[in-house]
Amino acid sequence: MKIDIIGAGSLGLLLAGKLIHAGNEVRLWCRSVEQCRELSNSGLSVSFEDDQAEIEISGDQFVSAPVREFPATYLREPSEWIVITVKQDILHHVLPEFLSPLRQQQTYIVCFQNGLGHMEMLQELLPYADLYAVVTTEAAKRKTLTKVIHAGKGESWLGKWPVEKQMVGEHHKEQDEIQAISLLGALSLAGFTALLSKEVDTMIYRKLLINAVINPLTAIWRIPNGGLLVSEQRMQLMRELYAEAISVYEACGIVHEDNAWDNILAVCQSTAGNTSSMLADVLASRATEIRWINGSLVEMAERSGMAVPLHRWICQLIEGMSAEER
Ligand SMILES: NC(=O)C1=CN([C@@H]2O[C@H](COP(=O)(O)OP(=O)(O)OC[C@H]3O[C@@H](n4cnc5c(N)ncnc54)[C@H](OP(=O)(O)O)[C@@H]3O)[C@@H](O)[C@H]2O)C=CC1
Ligand SMILES: CC(C)(CO)C(=O)C(=O)O
């Protein structure tokens, strides 16, 4: 399968390495020319935390190029799937320039981002695109420009966006299913546990709840995920954030599981040693995804006429950490 991957960070390199290893034709689109050069000179490697053998891909087994060359290349020679693995801020503020030349095209695009808001933005930007979201519990950590560690094996759920659009014409629906199943096949052959979801929105909201409680607190306290469970004080703040988020879900009619709180605790335990993605961003002085995680809860609350002071405050606190001084 011919696949374009935009964003050669942790998740992008992991997907690229394993998909190329499984025989797919991958074009990897990077921000920097330096990374493209390193990738074509040294190739890329995926290592594992257990004793699984490292995957080594040489530079001539795939294309790596700067993202500005993506639109012209795609229009000349389209791929079967465009996989987007940049962070939310880049997707909203930088990628539209490189994706908008595809506005009149029918394309298949799949997004791996945590948080909410990007799918709606893409729907408006690319009205003829067939959009899919993936909710994944895989964990990837980029070590250098060409090396990534598969830090935790999880599951990836793929679903069409928006979910209601599944009502469109039978022929299109059949074509969509074939396309989705072929991506799932490629991911499975590459060693991922990849499944089709007819309710990917429910899965997105489930992950949002986890990220909205764990990510900002670990980033503020600079602790690994498991560190949230070690004191009653930390747990109390988690509970308060959780309760506010659940009241938003209830006001907006969003389905949540009865055991959602236990699920958050279970994620803290199973990822106890992990640095959350938000803490990693704060430590590297990068923009975080808070606006699309807790910020999306604030927006949903506002639309329902509710106040969510804790989520609003925590957004400001985190955004203030990476703000540039005037
Ligand atoms: N890592 C993980 O395990 C998981 C990540 N996710 C989600 O996946 C998304 C990606 O996460 P992750 O891979 O960790 O993030 P990273 O920060 O590791 O990777 C993002 C990549 O995007 C690149 N980028 C920045 N600007 C551009 C641009 N204009 N064009 C092309 N590429 C660009 C960055 O390049 P550069 O480094 O040169 O700036 C970087 O390589 C996030 O939304 C995250 O929430 C979800 C589940 C698990
Ligand atoms: C589930 C969790 C909290 C794992 O670290 C995560 O998704 C993240 O760090 O963004």
UniProtKB/TrEMBL annotation:
A single BP term in Gene Ontology: pantothenate biosynthetic process
SUPFAM superfamilies, sorted: 6-phosphogluconate dehydrogenase C-terminal domain-like (SSF48179), NAD(P)-binding Rossmann-fold domains (SSF51735)
Ketopantoate reductase N-terminal domain sequence ranges: 4-162
Key words, A-Z: NADP, Oxidoreductase, Pantothenate biosynthesis
The EC number(s) this enzyme carries: 1.1.1.169
GO MF term list: 2-dehydropantoate 2-reductase activity; NADP binding
Cellular component, GO, one term: cytoplasm
Domain Ketopantoate reductase C-terminal: 200-320
Pfam families: ApbA, ApbA_C
Function of the molecule: Catalyzes the NADPH-dependent reduction of ketopantoate into pantoic acid.
Protein name: 2-dehydropantoate 2-reductase
